[in-house]
């Protein structure tokens, strides 16, 4: 692929230069994701060793390239598994699947709650359906019967990445196309413009937000598309932004994939604070009622639950 946006899109296409053999844990026969208690999570230091840096609420390993964790609101979480090797994270191979796990312990209750997907990444819930991005498709899966699905294929879609739902509309970032696709009542609406290499998207109390993988910045977004994305101007703090959520106090929570950190950003004074140093954090899950951040560690096939800052 020669399009420079595609070369840097989403989480993915730099992975082969950053790490090899990241699928070994997932490829071990019979290995299942499971919880561990009283765990610590660390990041490699300059010598390549792991230095534990903080306590975690829960931890589970053995996933297959976990990209997103979504609290379901019923004591469980969904985890999207791309289940592909290096340079294949956008392939239409039908190998991807969604797992369901206990929200408190991360013990997997249904390893393949929904399978037959290509490379599932971002997720959201709307109208009794779990919506998931799947390369050039948006798939709505019935929460009651995951075999019942609606598949939408936006025109000219390239790499659909993160999803968010707001006021009856599903929004889907397209990293390579620099667009946000929209779905209302099961029908596609016109897309809106987004920053180059747009990745994570979310809604706060009164504002839509987005982050850019290559531009490294956070953007205020107009969900109607009438106004251009407005950068906050915090790019100097980050390497490759992946996910974004808004906390109840107005701070933004972001994951910096190759920066190996989860941070808060105050949009008022632009103060940036590192919450956790953690390898390859992807699409975060936020449960403020339980006080938990769920972090899928894309390159090491692990999910951890951390306390809210």
According to CATH, what is the class? Answer: Mainly Beta
What's the tally of helices?
3
In CATH terms, what is the fold-level topology? Neuraminidase
Q: How widely separated are the two ends?
A: 40 Å
Biggest sheet strand line-up:
1-4-27-26-25
Radius of gyration: 18 Å
Any overview of this molecule?
By secondary structure, this protein is mainly β. The chain has a single domain, classed as Neuraminidase (6 Propeller). The chain is built from 3 helices and 27 strands. β18 and β19 (218-221) form a beta hairpin. It is globular and about 45 Å long.
Summarize the structure.
The chain has 309 residues and is mainly beta. It has three helices and 27 strands.
Question: What's the layout of helices and strands?
Answer:
Elements: H1 4-8, H2 15-18, H3 24-27, E1 34-36, E2 40-44, E3 50-55, E4 58-61, E5 66-71, E6 76-81, E7 96-102, E8 108-117, E9 120-126, E10 129-134, E11 137-142, E12 149-152, E13 160-166, E14 169-174, E15 179-184, E16 187-193, E17 198-203, E18 208-212, E19 218-221, E20 230-231, E21 241-246, E22 252-256, E23 261-265, E24 272-277, E25 285-287, E26 292-297, E27 302-307
Keywords:
5-stranded antiparallel β-sheet; mainly beta; 309 residues; Neuraminidase; 4-stranded antiparallel β-sheet; disordered N terminus
